[in-house]
Amino acid sequence: MADYPKDTSIVVDDVTKAFTLRYHRTFKQVSVALVKGRDLSDTFNALDHVSFTVKQGESIGLMGLNGSGKSTLLKLVNGIMKPDSGTVLTRGRIAGLIATGAGFHPQLTGRENVYLNAAVLGMSEQETARKFDQIIDFAEIGRHLDAPVGNYSSGQFARLGFAVAVHVDSDIFLADEVLAVGDRPFKKKCMEKMQEIRDSGRTLFYVSHAAASVRKMCDRVIVLENGRVGFDGAVDAGIKYLKYEDENPLNDPDDMGDLDEELGADI
Amino acid sequence: MTDTGHVPVSEQPLVAPSASNGLLGVFSRRYLLRLLVRREISARYQGSFLGLLWSYINPLTQFFIYWFIMGKLIGMAGRAENYAIHVFAGLIVVHFFVETFNAGTRSIVRNKALVKKMALPREMFPVASMLVSLFHVGPQLIILLVACLVTGWSPDLVGMTAGLLALGIVMVLGTALALLFSTANVFFRDFSSAVSILTNFVRFGVPMIYPYTLVAERFAGHTELYLANPIADGVLLMQRAFWTGTTDDPTVTALVHMPDHLLTRGVIALGGSLIVLVVAQLVFTRLENKIPERL
C-alpha cells in the first residue's frame, strides 16, 4: 500500500468480479437439469482485470454501453461489493448515488430516510441536523417530507437521494446516471452542484452516457467494454473512442455546447 | 466520523472501502444501529392500528392458551405451584428467542433496498432484530415482576444472576442464529420457512408448559441431553429468577424443580452460545460477498 503516492484517491488494481447466472433455482428445476445433464449455473465476468488509479481531485467520466460493468465498478469503489480478485483501495469518505437512486427504505418517511441515509454515509446526528434544512431546500420536496418515500415519484426519490449525497462532506463523490430522472431545472441544479463538488477538490466519479455533460464535468474518461478498460485518457479522445464503438445517436458529436442538449442527452 | 472538522483527505489512509470488522464494526457505529432499531420497531407494525400492542397481544394469547389448555385442562397446573408464573417466565425467554430468530432470519432480505445500495456492516440487520426483540422483553418483564410481587416474591442474588444469564444466553445465541440464517435466507428463501418450523419445536422443547420434574421423571437418565439445549437452560434460569421465589418454600422448589448446578449450566450454555456466535460470524464473513448480487 505504501507504494501509492499521497495524493492517490482510488486504486483499482487488477480487479475481477464474476456474477453467477442462475438457470435453475427450485428443487424441481434442479432435478430436471440434473437428469437432462444441463449446466446448473454459468458465470460471467462483469469486471475483467480492471486496473487504474485516480488522483485526489480528478474527475473521471466513466462511460460504456449498458452492461459494460460501470455500476459494478461503482459498487466496488463504494464498498457495497468486494472484488473476487485484485484490490480496491480508497482514501477518505465516499458518498454518492449507486444505480440511479439512493438506498432509501420505502416504508420510512423522507425525513427518517434522510437521517438514516446520512448515518449510513457516516454522518453524526448533529451533523445531519445542521445540514437538514440545506438538504431539504435542495431536494425541493416540500410537504412530502413526512410521507413514506415509497409514495414518492421517481423524480422526488432521486432528488432527495442526490440532496443527501451532495451534502455529505465526502472526499470521493460517485454519481451513477444521477440525471436520468428529474426535470430540467433540477438537472441544471445537479450539474451546478457537481461542478461545485469538483471545484472543491473532491474526486468525482461520474457515470454518464451524455458526451456533452462528461465533456463539461470531467478531465479524464474511462471507457469500459465488456468489463475491460477499453480506453483511459483524455475526455475528447475517450468520447471519440466510444463513438467508434456504438452508433447511438444520443452521443452525436453535435450535441455539445448547448445546455439543453447536454442535459437532454443524459438519458 | 467526527463532527468537528473533517480530517484532511491526505491524512487518511488508503483502505479497502468494503473493509468491515463484523460485529465489532456494528457496535462502533451505535448511532446508525440506534436508527436501524427505531426503524425496525416502526416498520414491524407498519400500517397496523394497534401497532406496538401486537407485541404484547401475541405472547399474552399464547400464555392464556398454555395456561388454560395445558394448565387447567390437561392438569399441568397441579404439578407446579403458581403455574401461571412458571409459564410466563418461560414464555418471556422463548418469545425473545423465537422473535429474534424469526425476524433476524428475514432481516437482510427485508432490508434489501439498503443492503444493495449502501455500504454498511450487514451484521447491523440481524443485531438490530435482536435488539428490537430485547426492547419488547422490557414490558413483559414488568408484567412478570408485578405478578411476582403480588404473590410475595422477593429478589435474591442467585436468582438475579440466573435471570441475567438467561437473557445473556438468548441474546448471544439469538444473534448467532440470526446472523447464520439471515445469510442463508438470501441464498434460499426456504430458510425463513424452515426457521418458523424450528421455532415451533422450541416452545415444546423447554420446560415452560410442563415442569422440569416431568422431564426428570419420564426421561430419567437422559436429562443431560435435554439440558444441552441452551434455551431450556435459559427458561430454567428465568424460572429460578422469578418463579421459585413465589412458591411457598423457595428453597425446596429450587431443589426439587431445578436441575443441579443450574448456574454452572447457565455459564456453560452462555459459553457454548458464544462459540456458536464466533462460528456464525466466520460463516457470515465468508458468504457476505455474495449477498448484494443474490438479493
Whole-number mean pLDDT of chain B: 88
Q: Kindly name the structural category of chain B.
A: mainly alpha
* Straight-line N-to-C gap of chain A: 38 Å
Supply Rg of chain A: 20 Å
Number of domains of chain B: 1
Query: Number of domains in the coordinates of chain A?
Result: 1
Evaluate the radius of gyration of chain B.
Answer: 21 Å
What's the story with the biggest beta sheet of chain B?
none
Tell me, briefly, the overall form of chain A: globular
- Structural category of chain A is alpha/beta
Q: Please bin the fraction of helical residues of chain B.
A: over 70%
Described by strand count, sense and barrel closure, the largest sheet of chain A is: 6 strands, mixed
As a percent range, the share of strand residues of chain A is 25-35%
Provide the low-confidence segments of chain B as ranges: 1-5
Low-confidence blocks of residues of chain A:
251-261
**Global mean pLDDT of chain A:** 81
How much strand content do the residues of chain B show? under 5%
Provide an overview of this structure.
The complex is a heterodimer of chains A (267) and B (295). Chain A has 267 residues and is an alpha/beta fold. Helices cover 37% and strands 26% of the residues of chain A. In chain A, the strands form 2 sheets. In chain A, strands 5-6-7-3-8-9 form a 6-stranded mixed sheet, with helices on both faces. A 3-stranded antiparallel sheet of chain A has the order 2-1-4. With 295 residues, chain B is mainly alpha-helical. Chain B has 14 helices and 1 strand, in the order βαααααααααααααα. The two termini of chain B are 29 Å apart. β4 (85-91) of chain A pairs antiparallel with β1 of chain B, so a sheet runs across the interface. Chain A: Residues 21-251 form the ABC transporter domain.
